[in-house]
Amino acid sequence: MKTDSEFSSEGSRSIAAAVREELARRRISRQTLAEKAKISLSTLEKALSGRRPFTVATTIRLEEALGTRLRRPEPADIGAKAAADQAPEHLGSYARAAIAWLVGPYLTLRPSFGDAEAIFAYRTEITWSEAASCLVFHEQDRLDAAFNQQGWVSVPHQSGHIYLVTSRHGQYRLAMIGRPTMTGEMYGILTTLRAGRGTQLTPISTAIALVPMAGGGQEEPALGRIAPHHPSYGGYRAHLARVTDEEFALFKAGN
């Protein structure tokens, strides 16, 4: 049972993502961080893996050790005035019941930024946030786990598209995807920053596909960096090819 000193599962996931990002950026081990924060390595490992929620006391110690704030503003701060089952106006004013079909796990595919021939595959979970009164998304099972994204889902009626928006300290990342096909797949464009050498960050846009993940004990799809020789490569490449072949999105080169 959650206590007043513990963060919600959503809040704990946000803090865990922030801690992993700081560990990757500073290139320090979890053991080193635990020692600096004066907490046990076991406590840190369990919180990062989701086996136990982050507590206020543990989070404060981690913030002091890292010299940065880990508790990010939650969607609740933005949607506090929205009706309980309706998203705020700036996210499309959609009703929870009307958008229930979008909830669930998706196999997410995009070209690999580090290998021109490979495909990057990971999981994206879309859920309804009671606190924010809107849909939110969380990326999971990425090879570069420190860069897992999370944010809000905007579904405006006018454009007929779905927007997965991440905003952190004024830095935005956007996936603009079309409504699902008859079999549930969604295709579109991802605009983000590509990490280069040192601290170099370069804007990049690429095709992206979200494919519903089947449940019922069926075999899990292959995740990670999928090379051309992998058995799943052909099917994954076909999904990405649909983005431009069927004009779910277009890429215009400059003159």
Automatic annotation (TrEMBL):
Xref: SUPFAM superfamilies: lambda repressor-like DNA-binding domains (SSF47413)
Q: Which Gene3D superfamilies match?
A: lambda repressor-like DNA-binding domains
List, for all copies, the residue spans of the domain called HTH cro/C1-type: 18-73
Q: Which InterPro entries match?
A: Cro/C1-type_HTH, Lambda_DNA-bd_dom_sf
Domain of life of the organism in this record? Bacteria
* Listed name of the protein: Transcriptional regulator with XRE-family HTH domain
